[in-house]
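Consider the subject:
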Amino acid sequence: MLNVALTGNVASGKSIVARHFAEWGATVIDADELVREAQQPGSETLAAIVDRFGRDVLCPDGSLDRGALRRKAMGNEESLAALNAIVHPVVQQRRAELATATAARGDCVLVNDIPLLFEVLNPDDFDLVVLVDAPVELRHRRLTTLRGMPAEEADHLIAAQAPTDRKRERSDIVLDNAGTLAQLEDAARGAWRSIRARAAARLAGRGGPLLAVTAHPDDAAFAIGGTLARYADAGIETHLVCATAGESPRELSEDASLLGLTGTVGLGYSAGTLESHDASAVNALAHAIRRIAPAVIVTFGADGGNGHRDHVAVHQWTHQASSQARSACSLFYVAYPEPVARRISSRLRGTPDRQLAARLDVRPWQDVKRAANAAHASGDAPFDLDDPSASPPMEREWYAAERAAIGLETDLYQGLERRG
């Protein structure tokens, strides 16, 4: 997991960038939300705030009057320090708990939205620091015009945070937000591509090539598009051997371009004609395996996932070819947990949880997977990509394994030495 800190002084546009990152596939922990959670009525934190600042910081319903508290704390260093001493330890403990859970799920990118990163934490504790910045005059105008804040209160709020000059020097990525929202989104998207590539590389380490073996060109996009894009982004050689040519000779080349594949091989068969026992196909696939020398192969399971004869045949070919090539690779089969399979399509055959070996977070590459699927719009997709119920296959991709797994792995290169 890549542990990213996202920060920015008040009215810089940081929250807008955080929303974009969440939309594009990051898990976001919002420090402001954790503060509000910690200050709920009945909490020890709120009781400590009232004890220090008085009951006039409460609303009639017993909740915290944030404006009243801000007016008492801002502009007074002692009061601000006292407030931080009450709130920040609770927030940091909760953030650490959520970060641990995020890592355990195998999420690729964790973005910690922390306004006071440089003031109260050590930026070096994070893998990457992203700063959103804007001129002080512009931020002041946003506070007074867009939020309706009195000018004096805006002055105090801005003064409570350290100037950004030093923060810029210590940040890995700086997004300047002195322009339009569209310009900020473009800058954030560029930063996001860099972030997800770094996350993918960290997860995969120095893994060898990955080979996908499918029956039809659209299988790569529908079933494993996120996986292929993720490992291609990590700098791993990703290859595709496809038994059939699809409806257009351009389909394989489009897959290669959209998914970032290193190479593709078409075996030249026609859809619906594949036979499980085909020595020529096995020999051709074994030759490709020897040439590519993959560390990981992904293909269909014994039932083809949906019973399609071509999928079943490709499974048999891959199994026989890897043995013939004497490959020591790890062999994974496309799988869907039973609840997910039922939700997507009656044609999909679910895999019991005990048989699942890996679950990959592919949310950061949803845009790539959608683009690849759109290129095969005429194909026979097992699910509708625009249907909200199809969101699990767009966010996670699951695999069963040739060898029994020890726990659910979150990366296909995890524990290669154990499986080999």
Summary: The first helix runs from residue 14 to 24.
